[in-house]
TrEMBL record:
InterPro entries found in the cross-reference section: BLH_phosphatase-like (IPR005939), FAD/NAD-bd_sf (IPR036188), FAD/NAD-binding_dom (IPR023753), Prot-tyrosine_phosphatase-like (IPR029021), Sulphide_quinone_reductase (IPR015904)
Required co-factors: FAD
Signal peptide: none
Gene3D superfamilies listed in its UniProt record: FAD/NAD(P)-binding domain, Protein tyrosine phosphatase superfamily
Keyword Transport attached: no
Domain Beta-lactamase hydrolase-like protein phosphatase-like: 4-109
Residue numbers spanned by region Disordered: 561-580
One of the record's GO molecular function terms: hydrolase activity
Official protein name in the record: Beta-lactamase
Pfam families listed in its UniProt record: BLH_phosphatase, Pyr_redox_2
CDD domains with a match to the protein in the record: PTP-bact
Residues of the FAD/NAD(P)-binding domain: 158-282
Higher taxonomy: Bacteria, Pseudomonadati, Pseudomonadota, Gammaproteobacteria, Alteromonadales
Keyword terms, alphabetized: FAD, Flavoprotein, Oxidoreductase, Quinone, Transit peptide
Amino acid sequence: MERRKLSPFISVSPQISVEDVGVAASLGFKTIVCNRPDNESDDQINADKIKQAAERNGLTFKHLPVVSGNITDDDVSAFAKLMADIKGPVLAYCRTGTRSCTLWALAEAAHLAPQTLLDTAQEAGYDLSGQQSRMQQRFEQSTADTSQANAPSVNKHTVVIVGGGAGGQSVAASILKRQPQTDIAIVEPAEAHYYQPGWTLVGGGVFEREQTKRQMRDIMPKAAKWYQTAVSQFLPEQQRIVLENGDQIAYQSLVVATGLKLDWEAIPGLKESLGLHGVTSNYRFDLAPYTWKLVQATRKGKAIFTQPPMPIKCAGAPQKAMYLSCDEWKRSNFLKDIDVEFCTAGAALFGVKDYVPALQKYVDSYGINLQFQHNLIAVDGPNQKATFAVTDSSGRTSEVEKSFDMLHVCPPQKAPDVIAKSPLADKVGWVDVSAETLQHKQYGNIYAVGDVANAPNAKTAAAVRKQAPVVAENVLSTLAGKPAMAVYEGYGSCPLTVERGKIVLAEFGYGGKLQPTFPAWLVDGTKPTRLAWFLKEKMLPWLYWDIMLKGKEWLAKPKHLSHRPEPHSAPDACNFEEKK
């Protein structure tokens, strides 16, 4: 079967056979569109036979016949509507593929520049220069229509990045390092950008809060267009997003980097208690100083540190707050009078077993009472009481109320509502991507980076540092009509601050496989070291602001698949080679 890729969503082909339908299914196509009238030639296989084969192979079939040499505006409109309604990837065919390619180009001319469409068609082997004036007319008409009163404004960019956090900024910088002239837009409503890994050290009295904050305008790439607003809707079939004011942005490739949502409201009584009654959290910029204030003020009583069910960003952060607090109380000789509990919804101290022995030693030395399968479900701030759902070994759940003098909470976390309700989401709300390439499983011109992706990695800034170059390279490959070849191996890092001056530097990838950056003789990540603390306190902020956000990929160059299967089939996750 001869097929020619026009975009990650659609490929075109000359007349296909019944046998070709099974091949198309094996290559990941979801829909077949016939643009050829029946009985056009004696050797033609009519649409009904292709439809029957498609249904046998679990594919959708649509027949939109168009007369050769007579493609009308109604034909183009019908094709555009069909593309918006069906599931991709799509294989469209006619006698030679030219009609299908022409329909696609004329439909896309409503929001993509004609020269881009002509170049894409030419690369696929179709000369559409005869349609250039018609494409230009449709492009200009679309621009004129959107400028009319009551019509939404439509801007067009090659790459649109939704989210100006660590992931969005890093991907933009990495793309621009590779191709400085790339037309990039970043959609981000916030005025400030935060170095969130530093909030643990703010809560431990090591950093000042303002050290973790910079103005968004100061870290935004100058070559990128900044839309200081939020997205209200994703329209992937139309390759557009809708902004809060109703305006739209058309794109050739989209990167979703919204991060996740801290669901404070999921625990009754928590939100209104934060910052009061001894209730705090290092997961908020404004509350991390209150954590340190409470640590300094607490001399006796009960201190509870909580961790909700996964996934959460930086799974070690709840423990970091606890260890730094205990270290301060120990140094001040108050620890013996404080009952410290770690109440986690999980069944283990840490998800990667290699790091548990070192952590357990600190738990024992601080006298921390571990409470597994304890999930915080309610907070009564004024009365300083916390309620937990406790699951026993037989799976039965009961409620237990605990009094506290200090309560450090890690909130439940989930995908942002705008993502969870969009066509991009998986069943639980995260952007549905390949774990290796971070490419969307249905929409091949869409990628996700950071906490919002459903890849099974630890949600950390260190993960973003390795993901951003992968996404940048794959986006540019997609724009060039090539397969995504850069791969992410699930790297995440969690510098566990077990005491002031020492850190257990956990570095691991998919399946809990250890991925240390440094040799064990320099930094043994399974043991607490002072060098790891130096990295956390002195090196990592610099690495974040001046390396990662600038697109400098020190120790973060992506690996590549040695070969890539056809569209949307799963790559061999073991078949890696280093980029030369």
